[in-house]
Amino acid sequence: MNGTHSMLGKQAKALSPNQIKAVLLHLASTRNPERNRVAFLLSVKAGLRAKEVASITWAMVTTSEGRIAEVISLHDIASKGSSGGSIPMAREVQDALAALKAMSASPKPTDPVFRSERSKASSAQVIVNLFSSWYAALGFDGCSSHSGRRTFITQAARNIGRFGGSLRDVQMLARHSSLAMTQRYIEVDTEAMRKVVEW
């Protein structure tokens, strides 16, 4: 199964806040906790696809002085088609990247952020398999490497109105060419629908 497209037909499940906490707790006991934490947070807190997690380099997440930036400058070459762009980074993502960078041996700007144990670079399939193993270990049925991205887009859609934004802003964050595609990612909240009619 290719997680970069994964499951738009049978939608990967979005993660609940408790599931996100459970994954982060699980990752702390894995072989590469800092690296794995970064990969997961890039998915769930920045909405990156498996291919993007595998392809992102330090130059895309750092300033010219080498400090962790406030935005991810995702190049098209690391993305799907021409869907690169600037993605604001949550503080939690910045902190995880800083911790990973601090324990890395002076990574070059062109070095990939995510490195497998056997090689310098990684692949989308490695990321897909890694996420699958985490979710399987936790018994999260229906979750895949795309679950983090779907969670990110759903949460952005639910919260954007609080900051004066709209679904068009969520579309930009998701880097979708159409609003219809963004809307397909947003998980329906039946409780919210019930409440919104009681005004």
Textual characterization of the structure:
The structure is a single chain. The protein contains nine helices and two strands; from the N terminus they run H-H-H-E-E-H-H-H-H-H-H. The chain is globular. The chain has a domain at 17-149: Orthogonal Bundle (hpI Integrase, Chain A), CATH 1.10.443.10. Helix 6 (147-159) packs antiparallel against helix 7 (167-174). Helix content is 46%, strand content 4%. The chain has a two-stranded antiparallel ribbon. The chain has helices spanning 17-27, 33-44, 50-55, 91-102, 124-138, 147-159, 167-174, 179-185, 190-196; strands at residues 71-74, 85-88. By secondary structure, it is mostly helical. It starts with 16 loop residues before the first helix and ends with a helix.
For this structure, what is the CATH homologous superfamily of the domain at 17-149? Intergrase catalytic core
Runs in which pLDDT lies below 50 for 5 or more consecutive residues are 1-9
State the CATH topology of the domain at 17-149: hpI Integrase, Chain A
N-to-C CA distance: 44 Å
Write the H/E string, N to C.
HHHEEHHHHHH
Separate helix tally: 9
Average pLDDT works out at: 85
Level-2 CATH architecture of the domain at 17-149: Orthogonal Bundle
Biggest beta-sheet profile? 2 strands, antiparallel
| Fraction in beta strands | under 5%
Calculate Rg over CA atoms: 17 Å
The structural class is mainly alpha
